[in-house]
């Protein structure tokens, strides 16, 4: 009886180990995918779009030299081609790097023909500010496989979003962002 219990334990442990090794991770670093958590299979990749930067100044800057200048990243189009519900998740291979230092999720402000999010501001008296608390959303994550992280979208409200790789946004004129829309399940 003891041998039978030991055999069952070994088989059960082997099955768990085999299943844990079958977690499918994205092949390339910094390419996010939707993931099906029931069977750990990667779904659609998030669309990669070009974002370009523009600065806007208040009229007072031009008239009297006092005021603020805000810079925004713009993406053409009012909607992402990928619509997700907030009960889905994204997986991204970060090569073992910290998600909080590598990626950010920003909520777009939707305009007539494009989307934008503010990435910085300079004021005459307040100085420069490069972080935008309104656009950047806090997100939870957990390790997924060897080098990836899983980002549940449950904390995001309906709207247009982008996932940006922070170290690729150093070019002052343009950047690549991964866009998606959130629609609540009905």
Provide a descriptive summary of the structure in words:
With about 190 residues, this protein is an alpha+beta fold. The protein has one domain (about 25-180). The chain has three helices and 15 strands.
Brief write-up:
This protein has 186 residues and is an alpha+beta fold. Helices cover 16% and strands 44% of the residues.
Query: What is the arithmetic mean of pLDDT?
Result: 80
Oligomer: single chain
- What class, by secondary structure content? alpha+beta
Low-confidence stretches: 12-21
What is the 3D shape?
elongated
How widely separated are the two ends?
Answer: 52 Å
Total count of helical runs of at least 4 residues: 3
The main pleated sheet reads as: 10 strands, mixed
Helical content stands at 10-25%
Strand/helix succession: HEEEHEEEHEEEEEEEEE
Rg, rounded, reads 21 Å
Strand tally: 15
Overall domain count: 1
- What portion of the residues fall into strands of 2 or more residues? 35-45%
Based on the model shown, name its key terms.
alpha+beta, 10-stranded mixed beta sheet, 5-stranded antiparallel beta sheet, 16% helix, 44% strand, elongated
Mind sketching the topology for me?
Elements: H1 2-21, E1 33-36, E2 41-45, E3 48-57, H2 59-64, E4 68-76, E5 83-84, E6 89-93, H3 99-102, E7 103-107, E8 109-110, E9 114-123, E10 127-129, E11 136-137, E12 142-144, E13 148-152, E14 159-165, E15 174-182
Parallel strand pairs: 5-15
Antiparallel strand pairs: 1-2, 1-6, 3-4, 3-15, 4-9, 6-13, 7-11, 7-14, 8-9, 9-10, 12-13, 14-15
């Amino acid at each position: 009886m003891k041998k039978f219990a030991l055999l069952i334990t070994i088989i059960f442990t082997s099955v768990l180990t085999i299943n844990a090794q079958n977690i499918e991770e994205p092949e390339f670093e910094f390419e996010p995918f939707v993931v099906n958590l029931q069977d750990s299979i990667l779904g659609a990749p998030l669309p990669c779009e070009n974002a370009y930067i523009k600065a806007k100044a208040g009229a007072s800057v031009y008239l009297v030299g006092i005021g603020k200048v805000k810079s925004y990243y713009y993406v053409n189009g009012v909607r992402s081609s990928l619509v997700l519900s907030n009960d889905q998740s994204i997986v991204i291979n970060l090569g073992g790097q910290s998600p909080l230092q590598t990626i950010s999720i920003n909520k777009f402000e939707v305009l007539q023909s494009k989307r934008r999010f503010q990435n910085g501001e300079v004021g005459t008296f307040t100085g420069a500010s490069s972080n935008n608390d309104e656009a950047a959303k806090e997100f939870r994550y957990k390790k997924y496989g060897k080098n990836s992280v899983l980002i549940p979208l449950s904390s995001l409200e309906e709207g247009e979003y982008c996932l940006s790789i922070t170290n690729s946004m150093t070019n002052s004129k343009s950047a690549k962002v991964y866009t998606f829309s959130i629609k609540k399940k009905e």
